[in-house]
Amino acid sequence: MAQVLARATRIPRLGRFGWLMALYAENHRKLVRLFEPGDLAAGSYASSIGDGLDLRLDVLEQHRYTSELRMTYTVVDAATGAPDPSAFIRLYRDAHQAEATHCHVGRRWQDAIGMYPPTDTLIRHRLRMNTFLGKWLDYLAEQGHGVARLQPLADAPVLVDVPARRASDA
Question: What Pfam family does this protein match (any one) (predicted)?
């Protein structure tokens, strides 16, 4: 009996931060499998499956180890005039992580969680955003979106309303 209890206490418990890092890794796997964004040049792309709800993928910037992306539908929110839903994504190719940094129409992270949120609030907020991203990527894959359907959008401006970065995001 003592051996069973000793074995049970050695099992590590995954905390919220560990869960978030695992979520980033899973989102990276899904995003790379779906769109291979590290191979795309900066610009705008559309994925259409014929359902009238085209997906737009903007490659905002490509760096040596990082890609900055925006993923949205071609649907405009009536209140803000911005595409909705929308997710800003930072893809870390070297670390195999993909982080949804913002998912707010017309709102910045400061408006959502405050200027100096407690660590627990920040992690909870990032868990929600990245869970949303993972579910959205699953849905897109089920619907048939993917790299084979991506078409460059000629003469389409890259959406420039990128949320301001935090000092911790640099």
Answer: DUF1249
